[in-house]
């Protein structure tokens, strides 16, 4: 897919912007704090309805404004679509070809993006919560039903936790209530776990191959789901359901004591192994970076495999961080296949000879000159 035209209004430091005629490779050049990342972020937000930098939508609205709009024309295999997302303190409203979508999950995934940003190192180095967020955002854009189950799961989880907080010393009716929540929690939880495991299995296939390429065959990358119950490779829903229910009954007393749900997809994690050693613990900075890079490149292929089209690629400040060999690997991967938006503070910081046909946009104080 291909973004033809982008319009943003009251978004971060952009008052109003109307940009067309994007190329296959687009370089956004500008000094610090001019709005380069903001522009990439607006495309990501249009795809996912969420930012990679914040969970607070309010931050996306320009200071002093009461709403923000991002819209774009996207060329897809079966024709052009117009996407519009409007953010305000009252919430988000999304339109496809002018038609308001009842559910955001009907909108998410119409535009597919893969973003590679400095923060991605945290997927390898950071907390389990960051890895779960990575999984949720990425699976959500290829499988809207995943987002439905995730939302339902979170709702049930909150209610179940509230009940657990009051459960200490309560009568038998509490046990009946808990049983009801257990079933609903497991129903949605199992779907989430299954989809995550499938996603990781597919991602692993591509990531291993790509990582091997980048490291000249020296490193074997493996991805493993770390579930809070059962085995990593179990994908049968009935088996998962049973395991989850057993786990919940085993944990009951402890959960009542602590007042919260202690197992389930909200407690799961993902681990990366390089030649058998956990990258988070033993990996060098460079290995961790390469792991994050392999993951992102793998996602491009995975999205293509799943939806039959390549996503667009957003590279924020990353080329200059990579050594020339990895820069070349990265550029060669996207150059022929995917429309790419790259930010840099100067053209000289990147291997520009490989980007001869790039369209160049100069970003300055929330305005753009091409
Ligand atoms: N809601 C907002 N309203 C107005 N301005 C904002 C808002 N959020 C962020 N900004 C401003 O946007 C500016 C540019 O941010 P951005 O992250 O896009 O810079 P950048 O060009 O990517 O810089 P760098 O090279 O340092 O990464 C910042 O100065 C910031 O203060
Ligand atoms: Mg930036």
Overview of the molecule:
With about 375 residues, the protein is an alpha/beta fold. The chain folds into 2 domains: about 1-110 and about 310-370, P-loop containing nucleotide triphosphate hydrolases (Rossmann fold, 3-Layer(aba) Sandwich); about 115-310, Glutathione S-transferase Yfyf (Class Pi), Chain A, domain 2 (Up-down Bundle). About 45% of the residues lie in helices and about 25% in strands. The protein has 9 helices and 15 strands. It has helices at about 35-50, 120-125, 130-140, 145-165, 170-215, 235-260, 280, 285-305, 325-335; strands spanning about 1-10, 15-20, 25-30, 70-75, 80-90, 90-95, 100, 115, 220-225, 270-275, 275-280, 310-315, 340-345, 360-365, 365-370. Strands 2-1-4-5-6-7 form a 6-stranded antiparallel beta sheet, with helices on one face. Strands 8-12-13-3-14-15 form a 6-stranded mixed beta sheet, sandwiched between helices. A 3-stranded antiparallel beta sheet has the order 9-10-11. Strand 4 (about 70-75) and strand 5 form a beta hairpin. The longest helix is centred in the middle third of the chain and has 43 residues, at about 170-215. It is globular and about 70 Å long. The mean pLDDT is about 95. It binds adenosine-5'-triphosphate and magnesium ion. Magnesium ion (MG) binds near residues 36, 37, 316 and 317. Adenosine-5'-triphosphate (ATP) binds near residues 62, 317 and 345.
